[in-house]
Specification:
This protein is mostly helical. The chain is built from seven helices and no strands.
Length: 172
């Protein structure tokens, strides 16, 4: 069966779409709102809407449909709220035995400062930065997720890195 013949209404096809794209969409919405529970709800609602509209959406358009539904839901819910990102840091417990207490304290302070600096980035720069650095997405993949040109993504990343360097010095 070719992509154009695949029906989203088929449970196996729907599951394939969900398994392939749900994590990217969840992370994308989480980076926008900073609330994992809310991001999970929005992502789940977007896939429910896809299921309800499965006869009207082509297989090759499913990812962009779900992304757009999730994005619109986010904008509708958070239009007038300030977004504060709670960036989860890697646990330092696994490396404590290798470094001095002074180093660990400095690193912990730097990580707090980094998290705060990332959360203070403009929302558009923050989402590009986190998709690139945390999710390891290429600029091309980010451009597809956000719906921009690759050049626009590169510009946002440049601005994000520039702002982080100003706040943190050249240690990043």
């Amino acid at each position: 069966m070719t992509e154009k013949q695949k029906s989203i209404c088929d449970e196996k096809t729907f599951k394939l779409i969900f398994d392939t794209h749900s994590e990217v969409i969840l992370n994308f919405i989480y980076y926008k709102c900073g609330n994992m529970n809310q991001a999970e709800d929005i992502t789940q609602d977007a896939f429910i809407k896809l299921w309800k509209n499965c006869k009207n959406v082509l297989f090759e358009k499913a990812k962009s449909f779900v992304m757009k539904v999730a994005q619109n839901a986010f904008f509708n819910e958070f239009e007038h709220k300030k977004v504060i990102l709670k960036y989860n840091q890697k646990s330092l417990s696994s490396i404590q035995y290798e470094y001095s207490p002074d180093f660990l304290l400095e690193e912990k302070e730097f990580m707090k400062k980094l998290q705060l600096s990332i959360s203070e980035l403009p929302q558009k720069q923050r989402e590009v930065f986190l998709l690139s650095r945390k999710d390891k997405k290429t600029y091309k993949e980010i451009a597809e997720i956000i719906g921009l040109t690759q050049k626009a993504v590169e510009r946002r990343m440049h601005l994000a890195l520039q702002e982080l360097r100003e706040k943190l010095g050249h240690s990043i």
